[in-house]
Design a protein that fits this description.
By secondary structure, this protein is α/β, with parallel strands linked by helices. Helices cover about 50% and strands about 15% of the residues.
Length: about 170
């Protein structure tokens, strides 16, 4: 049985955090909440989460700075920015820093479910792709060959170069 996804929600609005915890739990997600930006960053760095919801406007630190710090410690983090004061500029800024989506408050329950499922599916596909790329790299490196001589390495390098697409076609 697969573990349920883990989500961290960081927002200074206690009512919104209650709504998120209730809704996301109903969607089959384990939810951890934080009313403090700094505490939320600490919680994220001490545990593993599949997704983070971050409020854009908080008193001690804005969501952009939270996003910046989380992405600095984990460039593969999946963050969704939330805001009650949506603007194109704030959305662009969040997306440039690595947010995967941008939600406006008040949050719509149906839209929240769609975004959650879409983002978790995207995360799963991204992780599978990273794993496949690592496997292809390892398999393509000829590691594990027994009795590799300098002549064999030369031949393997020749084959690798010969199989690479050439930009020079006659």
């Amino acid at each position: 049985m697969k573990n349920e996804p883990r989500v961290l929600a960081i927002d200074d609005d206690e009512l919104l955090l209650g709504f998120l915890k209730s809704a996301l739990t109903e969607f089959g997600v384990e939810v951890v909440i934080s009313q403090s930006a700094k505490e939320g960053i600490r919680i994220y760095q001490e545990s593993q989460f599949d997704l983070i919801f971050v409020d854009y406007m908080m008193p001690e630190m804005n969501g952009v700075e939270v996003l910046r710090q989380i992405m600095a410690s984990d460039p593969n983090a999946f963050c969704i920015m939330m805001t009650g004061n949506a603007s194109i500029e704030s959305a662009v800024e969040a997306m440039k820093l690595g947010a995967v989506d941008y939600l406006t408050k008040p949050l719509d329950l149906d839209h929240l479910e769609i975004v959650l499922k879409k983002t978790l599916q995207h995360k799963s596909q991204t992780e599978k792709l990273r794993l496949l790329e690592a496997q292809v790299t390892q398999l393509g490196s000829y590691e594990g060959l027994i009795g590799v001589t300098p002549l064999l390495w030369t031949m393997l390098d020749f084959l690798r170069n010969a199989s690479a697409p050439s930009i020079f076609h006659s």
